[in-house]
Amino acid sequence: MTKPEFKMSNAMNTSPCQSRSHLTRRSLLRGAGTAGISWLTPLADILAVEAERAPKGKPARSVILLWLGGAASQLDTFDPHPTTKIGGGVKTIPTAIKGVEFAAGLEQTASVMQDVSLIRSMVSKEGDHERAFYNIKTGYRPDPTLIHPSIGAIACHELPEAKIEIPTHVSILPNQWPARGGFFGPQYDAFQVYDPKSSIPDVRARVEDQRLERRLESLSVVERAFAAGRAPDLDKNKTLHQLSMQKARRMMTSEQLNAFDVSKATVAERDAYGDTPFGRGCLAAVRLIQTGVRCVEVTLTGWDTHANNLEGQATQVKILDAAYASLIRDLKKLGLLESTIVICGGEFGRTPKINNVGGRDHWPHAFSMLVAGGGFAGGRVIGSTDPEGEKKEPENPVLVEDLHATVQDLLGIDYSKEIMTPVGRPMALSKGEVVGELRA
Amino acid sequence: MNPPSNSVNWFAWLRNVVILGALAGAVVWSVGGWFVPPVAAINRNVGLSAAELKDIQTVAAGVNADFEKAWEQEKLQAAAPADNLTIARRLSLALTGSIPSLQEIRALETVKGVDVSQWWLTQLLGDRRTSDYLAERFARVYVGIENGPFLTYRRRRLVDWLSDALQKNRPYDQVVRELIDCEGVWTTNPAVNFITVTNENKKGPDEAKLAAKVSRAFLGVRIDCVQCHDGKLGSPWKQTDFHQLASYFGQMSFNVNGLRYNPKSKPYKVRYLGEMEEEKVPAKVPWKPELLPTKGTPREQLAAWVTAKENKAFARAIVNRMWAMLFNRPLVSPVDEVPLEGPFPPGMEKLADDFIAHGCDLQRLMRVMVATRVFQQSSRSADPDHPATQAAEDHWAVFPVTRLRPEQMAGSVIQASSLTTIDSETHVLFRLKRNADVSNFVKRYGDSGEDTFDDGAGTIPQRLLLMNGSMINNNITNNPIINASTRIGMLAPDAASAVEAAYLSIFTRRPTDEEAALFKGQIAASKRSKSNAMADLYWTLMNATEFSWNH
User: Fold this and answer.
1) What is the reported pLDDT for B112?
2) Would you say residue A132 lies in a domain?
3) Is residue A274 a part of any domain in this protein?
């Protein structure tokens, strides 16, 4: 496929001379306290000071992936065609981008679109859930010979973070396919947690500190016996057993664990996100990013509407809308949106044609994704689809690998760098090209 | 209501005394068993005639010679032989998915004057745990771990059928032929599930998925890599090779009456890269077409070709997989990609030849592998100045240290927490609980999915699960009825015996002097909280590298 030429439709000129440019990040963070999100900022002052010192144009440092598992229908969310035969009864609302409409139910998301860009022309070749999830999360199509790392694993591998005592790659509410470390190893797999309303499993010791210390001292004797006659670097270069245990211990005693805990948020703050598991996941994601976690994915399943599509999508839209808009707003208030890439989308889109049971089936040929923060422009729309649903290919297609290259580029990662994989085959971090039109 | 009579009270009292007495006696008797094992009941028969054993050892000696030549070339010093308990641990993990019980260890230590590893193998091959566990491992290769199409697929039936075949030691080529050319209903003919797992709504079984599975699982060839385009980077395969193989699975009719060959149904078609139209694909095998029979349905022909004696890729594929199951690492990695024309690693050709010569006998293949020097040797160097190196491990000069699979971890935690063997004789309620515990643990620890053998390292969630998870905690804390840690603490005559029993239960070895002194001291100091000291000992050993890694 030749490299597509991109057109921006209804782009909003995001001048740097907005009101925010007259504020420092520290004052924004302090202002955040009065805005009702002060609980989010145990480390906020430190981060604010660091942010102030950071030169302009600094690469993004973290990624949030809001995964719409099952595949949202572009026609019932971000790319509706209400008056055509493929409309399916969807109603529309205006957005902050002039002339761009969303499906009704996305009012809050519509209101933050000045900070978000919309790709309406994502193109993939994978129409099976598992293969497509792999494709979107890794930037590669499934390969029988090796497993590619997901974008979060790449970010953690390429941008190691020594100061963080909790896992730097987190998956909240994972479905059966959470982000994986692939050929970087399982230590780069996303750390899986469920509804933040519940405590994180297995991070609290079952015995008092003194007894745990005694157990660990005994363990060192047992480890010494096992190490005899074996390579001195066995743990460091192969098992990582004791290293993982040290990290687990560090995590168990770390104050940073509080980042997972959303119970301190006020009712109003939780309500703003919708007070759903996904909403609480998004709330925790902001807190984790603020603490320094490199990549958080939060999954909202239930989009696979092969029957009763209109109702099914509307139900999920309601959950997504409050959470997504609140996440963008809070990141912005905290001064973190400039350093945090936020991607929202699923495996593929859904068919223009409505099936016999009122459902829409899988459609990888043209679907939508939202991108924001971390150097992505706001207020832009890339690509478009045929309102009548007759033309399969969208205008200005964006390939999955190109989105990956763009994200890595914004993170300051040399996406073309080749890594020697365990099967002895060099593999670029991404085989795509940067989509310049998406950059701020 | 009338008040109970005195005689009724007396009977009730007597009944309770009898029941409680029987329970107490049972507990004491069963625990006493590990101090005084039922030696008389142990069958010391290796299960092989002297001639059979000698024949196996002769083949193993040939395999050893291959490896020894390679070690000499690489200037590697091979490790010393491992002790019997270490070998028994490897075997139990590979064949039953858990470590040996204390009861089994006590029995094993009474066996003298025979080849102990072959004796232990005989015990395990006669144990239903082995066929069940291996069947699950093979099923993962053949049909994956998902539940598949709801109405037309019964994974459990396929696993049970495989387990029966393994228990009876059916020739492997027969089993594979049945999987490929099966017909009928998936509920009454379990092999049909190999086909129906690929079933897609309206489209029927997926020819491409089946071709990929056959080439990988039975031939050790990843011909599916050329499904979309011709091979690159020197690959000899063309896109046509793959689809011509897939074409053998065309012309199948599939409905409620089952799977049938139907020459009138539509043939397999594909649109090749660069072509505009789909085209009908003829059924052709990618190598040695002369081995194809002239008669039979396409799938019968394919089944005969795959399993033909002269098609040595078939034997090499199962040699590589069985080696991987026993060593937790394949001879050729990845396990389903053995070069068709070589070069082959040491031992492979001799093992494949013996497998073919003995009618595709899986049990014999295991016996030969277990008899090799590679399986019998230590995973460490006896020379403290020259510890085992990665190079030595890469060339099999030491037994490889590999991460245990999640279900092996779970099975080992549960087995180590029981003094007696958890097998088909165990009460059904306990077995159900065990299965539920294993399932929950594996989900949290991270399922390995299809039967892969990656060199993955330990992770933080795994360590957290072992340190703080409920399964470990429930299995080591104070519970005098069920938990081995508490029962050993209660009934061992002294601290030294308690430490030794714990080490045997968890590590299948005795403690070093330093370890024994440390834990004896802790138990002696615990006085009134011996169960806590035993729980601490159990926790410590279960959180050690030695417990999580095969060695």
Assistant:
1) 86
2) yes
3) yes
Name the residue facing A144 among B222, B460, B545 (closest C-beta): B222
pLDDT in tens, B37-56: 444 456 778 888 999 999 99
Nearest to A248 among B455, B456, B463 (CB): B463
Strand, coil or helix: what is A218? Answer: helix
CA distance B105 to B88: 9
Which of A226, A244, A252 is nearest residue B546 as measured by Cβ atoms? A226
A239 to B549: CB separation less than 8 angstroms, yes or no: yes
In chain A, residues 309-368 whose CB comes closer than 8 Å to chain B: none
**Sign of dihedral through CA atoms A361, A364, A365, A367?**
positive
Which pLDDT score, from 0 to 100, does residue A26 have?
A: 37
Mind telling me how many Å the CA of A283 is from chain B's nearest CA?
22
What is the domain extent for residue A326? 8-199+261-438
- Check whether residue A222 and residue A312 sit in a common domain: no
Region A193-197: mean pLDDT is 92
Residues 6+ apart with CB under 8 A from B138: B162, B166, B451
Whether pLDDT at A141 is above 50? yes
Q: How far apart are CA B108 and CA B503, in angstroms?
A: 16
pLDDT at residue number A30: 41
Residue A88: both structure tokens together: 């399916």
The amino acid at B40: A
- Report CB contact under 8 Å: B522, A214: yes
CA distance A51 to A331: 14
Helix, strand or coil for residue B253? strand
CA distance B539 to B526: 16
Chain B contact set for A356 (CB, 8 A): none
- Nearest by CB to residue A222, choosing from B225, B467, B540, is B540
pLDDT for A60-71, tens place per residue? 999 999 999 999
A206 touches chain B (CB under 8 A): yes
- Which residues from B are below 8 Å from A203, CB to CB? 464, 468
- Rounded mean pLDDT of B414-431? 85
Whether residues A227 and A347 share a domain: the answer is no
Is the CB of A384 inside 8 Å of chain B's CB atoms?
Answer: no
Look up the pTM and report it. 0.81
Q: Flag if A239 and B514 touch (Cβ within 8 Å).
A: no
Tally of domains in chain A: 2
Q: Test A222 with B548 for CB contact under 8 angstroms.
A: no
A374 and A240 co-located in one domain: no
pLDDT-derived band at A420, boundaries 50, 70, 90: confident
Residue entry with tokens 């890599």: B225
A192 contacts chain B (CB < 8 A): yes
Nearest Cα neighbor of A43 from A261, A236, A278, A287 is A287
Residue A54 has pLDDT above 50, yes or no: no
Joined together, the tokens standing for residue A393 give: 């290919």
Lowest-confidence range among B151-160, B226-235, B461-470?
Answer: B226-235
Kindly state whether residues A64 and A140 are assigned to the same domain.
yes
Q: What residues of chain A lie within 8 A of the CB of B222, using their CB?
A: 144-145
Residue A2 — very low, low, confident or very high, per pLDDT cuts 50/70/90? very low
Cβ neighbours, 10 Å, residue B142 = 22
Range with the poorest average pLDDT among A427-436, B11-20, B376-385:
B11-20
Interface probe with B: pick from A202, A208, A213, most Cβ of B within 10 Å:
A202
CA B477 to chain centre: 29
Whether residues B540 and A219 touch (CB distance < 8 A) is answered with yes
Interface list for A 113-172 with B (CB within 8 A): 144-145, 167
Q: Look up residue B72 and give its two tokens.
A: 């000499």
Residues contacting B439, CB < 8 A, separation 6+: none
Please work out, in degrees rounded to the nearest 5, the angle formed at the alpha carbon of residue A189 by the alpha carbons of A262 and A367.
80
Q: Which of B444, B522, B545 sits opposite A241 (nearest CB)?
A: B545
Residue A3 resides in a domain: no
